[in-house]
Amino acid sequence: MIVLYQHPLSPYAQKTKIALREKGIEFELKTPEFSRGGFGGSEFLQANPRAEMPALTDGDIKIFDSTIILEYIEDKWNEPPLLPSNPAERARIRMIEDVMDTYYEPINWGLGEINFFGRAKGELAETIVGNAKEQAAKCRQWLTKQLGDREWFNGDHFGWSDLCVVPHINLSAIAFDIAPEANSPLANWFKRVSVRPSVAQTLQEAKDSITGLEQFSHLVEQGLFKREYRDHRLEWMIRMGGLQVVVAGIEKDNIRFSYDFS
Ligand SMILES: N[C@@H](CCC(=O)N[C@@H](CS)C(=O)NCC(=O)O)C(=O)O
Fold this sequence. Notes:
By secondary structure, this protein is α/β, with parallel strands linked by helices. The protein has helices at residues 11-22, 42-47, 66-76, 87-115, 122-147, 160-176, 185-194, 197-210, 214-221, 231-239, 243-252, and strands at 2-5, 27-30, 33-35, 38-40, 55-58, 61-64, 227-228, 255-256.
């Protein structure tokens, strides 16, 4: 049995769920338990020592990182293919994935740090949120160029790049009121993609999970949930003007960096 360790709001987890659902693969969803100041539990940590979601197990095979999980799914269950065979097209699609994973993702994550977890208030919050909205607008312009006159980011058919873009655009819209301009090519694509059964189910699960988020803000405040500041997220917070947020998080011991491998 395939097991996917996930949180429904994680855009990385959503990518992999959409892929599994598109291919009609049966899988069991598990949300890791809470331990060590974050998501943990031995079963999950064995699957992913980074303690990040998603992680996938297929019998004895344990895989972490959403891109590597997508590759495994595509390699093992090729039908229907989510990547075309043309090398240039595959590269184009993977660049979209990379931009969403490392450039767009911290926008929603950072807005969550401010709006859900109260990391900044007043002027500082306004600066960070203002910068985030500007960055998101530029990113939508970039995405609009990538879409061009295609029906799907992937081309003629829904695929890999569509499932990489949709979790982020959706999260911006449902959690932070940042949506593509009405009737724009991106808005029309978003409408089309959102009604695909694999996507609709995944987005609904994400939406349902937002309601419980307030409980986490108390955990963060008490240092019981240490949010992971790493890579692009750490850079983003500093770049958006939130160096103080990082410093305060270190002082309060309610942020963490990557775990060591052992
Ligand atoms: N590069 C990883 C990133 C995964 C990731 O950062 N997941 C977040 C959730 S969106 C996570 O589990 N963070 C750890 C935490 O919040 O404690 C991937 O693509 O799977």
